[in-house]
Amino acid sequence: MRRYRIAVIPGDGIGPEVMSATLPILEAVSETRGDLEFEFITLRAGDGAKEELGEALPKETVREVERCDACLFAAVGRSASEVILPLRQRLDLYANVRPAKIYPNIPALAGKADLVMVRENTEDLYRRVGFRGEDWGVALRIITRRASERIARYAFELARREGRRRVTSVHKANVLDHTDEIFLEACRRVAGDYPEIEYEEMIVDTCAMRLVMTPEHFDVLVTTNMFGDILSDLAAGLVGGLGMAPSGNIGESRAIFEPVHGSAPDIAGRGIANPIATILSAKMMLEWLGEADAARDIERGVVEALERGAPLTPDLGGSAKTWELAEAIRGAILNKPLAQKEF
Length: 343
Ligand code: IPM
Ligand code: MN
Hints:
single chain, alpha/beta, ten-stranded mixed sheet, two-stranded antiparallel ribbon, 11 helices, 12 strands, globular, binds 3-isopropylmalic acid, binds manganese (II) ion
């Protein structure tokens, strides 16, 4: 029996709703596989934690995330930048991996898309080094060769592992020459080690347009932190919205998996959030843990449930509740029809 201790951070807003839809899916995989088990350790972080405990990111939470095998993170509210950014930087989770893929029966803008955005996750403007005066502000864009080479290598290794054919490095070296020339030099150097993978460079504004017009052109994209933040939401928009966008923050030996969406205060508490982004983040977590079969079980569950047209949440054009969509996926994993009861 393989046992994994999973740090679980439900957070704020729709976070607890999508998390409680996802944990039973992991339990279902454990039940069907029979050879793996999860222990969930629920941790506090976010606006609620700040109000009650005085800190958005309690030290105990960081310690426990470090101790666990992996972490599943839902969403935090206004304090997001006090929670997820320090976690990414302190744990050195340098690769933010954001796949964008069209699933069956999803009302997607793009006809075809199956790409992975690999976003550098530790530096750039996200270091938040700057100054402000009364009427002016300065923010430093920090780009290093070490971090650029590391993220480029991650992108090429991912392409090789997944049998993907092309890596596009996205930059603005025509204007941000101080920083993005370093990023490009690093990407070119790493590209030389992967002759079987096509390498191309694209300026970020062109990339935004081409993602919209010819999304099928793209396979793996690698870029700096801020460009990756913006382009990954664009890519999510192509494949059905943030409700369909999972991600992994991945380091050398630790990782945190989280849906790209935030806490969505506008729909929080109504039980109508799309749980798929979190469910697919759990699938990425299993892959990272080396549980490829279990990860495939989850993806197959999502695909089968959607192929059956299974109750869709409002963001996907339906009127289903979070639990109905999650239960359809859980049923597909367990090979059972949609159960009637609410969990
Ligand atoms: C994301 C989010 C975060 C980011 C925010 C909440 C700090 O937008 O994960 O993309 O900017 O990285
Ligand atoms: Mn973002």
